[in-house]
């Protein structure tokens, strides 16, 4: 048979293979496949029964500094628990035009600018308190980051607070009045042009920074801009003659030391409560056939294929042509105010839960974000889909030491600036199963 005819026959058999629903038992553990053999002895096969082990993996360290976002508030998530966020930063020293003679102090105000993102119901009240930091904010050791569990001492009494609902897209700037004792102190130092407030190092020794923390009545987590718009504003006016009000700003000093601290209290009886630095994996079999993804609270989804390396043992010669993975969120877990993340990258992870790389498209080389499809009517067709062809091929010749699993991760640029979360079904979930399909050739 010439090559052209053989190619046409191959295409026909491949279509047939995809349509056949009967299954033959595989000779190797972990596989079942359907197959048709052409006249040359080549089989065109598809398998969708590869063994998958799924777990919720706990990450020890989640970097939250230098993200350009300040998170503050408390939210009670029915699945992930009571989550609180606080933000810390250093303040830039006084600079600019000198305060005019005979100026009079008016007030000191913290200006905060909400972003559009939030975690929880925005119709519920927000309660934010401002604290003076009393400990030097610094990165640990030689680390390039501060982390979600980093913490620094503050005064016990807030400098100011605000209680109100914050409306996304409408409330673009909020003002928190700061204690006048500190305000007058700042004004006096600035008025005298004292090096305590004009020299950056001396200023950091005197005023180590600010922290935003949730007050007792906070019921939602708000995302704020952590750039030059997050600043203390010192108001004063000048006399005699016509009264003229002026101000000077104290912005964020070092973005590398601005970070968000996250505190988590898992729901009573939740299997997530078992996860910790000493227990880093929660099998889906122990979590009602679910895996949980919320990177900012240390949780990612892990998928392992223990028998994938046996694939080449199916025959003397075989070749993977294509492999797809479809991940389905658990029905009823992504209603308002908890939408699914629009992007959910898939990464490569070691046995020690170290993320090594992000899966890219074999066709374009671009990072894969899951191509989310939403089924808002029945909630059974909602899914993320990935091309894992290159990953499967790479794992065929691995050893126990070189084996890599897959991990559902946050987007590299924005994933650790919000509380995006997903609850996903495993391979035995009754309504929202994760599935894999591998299309391959086997030569006899």
Structural write-up:
This protein has 444 residues and is mainly beta. The protein has 2 domains: 3-59 and 273-443, no CATH class; 69-257, no CATH class. The protein has 5 helices and 26 strands. It has helices spanning 3-19, 180-191, 195-198, 200-206, 389-395, and strands spanning 24-25, 32-37, 42-47, 53-58, 69-77, 81-89, 103-112, 114-119, 126-132, 160-164, 174-177, 210-214, 221-225, 231-238, 244-250, 259-265, 281-283, 290-293, 299-304, 317-327, 346-349, 355-358, 384-387, 405-408, 422-425, 435-443. Strands 5, 6, 8, 9, 10, 12, 13 and 16 form an 8-stranded antiparallel β-sheet that branches. A hairpin with a 5-residue loop joins strand 21 and strand 22 (355-358). It starts with a helix and ends with a strand. Mean pLDDT is 89; it is low at 1-29.
Nearest-angstrom radius of gyration? 28 Å
Shape: elongated
Number of strands: 26
Proportion of helical residues: 10-25%
Mean pLDDT: 89
Uncertain runs are: 1-29
Helix count, DSSP H or I runs of 4 or more residues: 5
Q: CA-to-CA gap between the ends?
A: 17 Å
What is the total number of structural domains?
A: 2
> Strand pairing plus helix content: what structural class?
mainly beta
Largest sheet: 8 strands, antiparallel
Portion of residues in beta strands equals: 25-35%
List the helices and strands and how they pair.
Layout: H1 3-19, E1 24-25, E2 32-37, E3 42-47, E4 53-58, E5 69-77, E6 81-89, E7 103-112, E8 114-119, E9 126-132, E10 160-164, E11 174-177, H2 180-191, H3 195-198, H4 200-206, E12 210-214, E13 221-225, E14 231-238, E15 244-250, E16 259-265, E17 281-283, E18 290-293, E19 299-304, E20 317-327, E21 346-349, E22 355-358, E23 384-387, H5 389-395, E24 405-408, E25 422-425, E26 435-443
Antiparallel strand pairs: 1-2, 2-3, 3-26, 4-17, 4-19, 5-6, 5-13, 6-12, 6-16, 7-11, 7-14, 8-13, 9-10, 9-12, 14-15, 18-25, 19-24, 20-23, 20-26, 21-22, 21-24
Signal peptide: 1-25
Keywords: Signal
Protein name: DUF4270 domain-containing protein
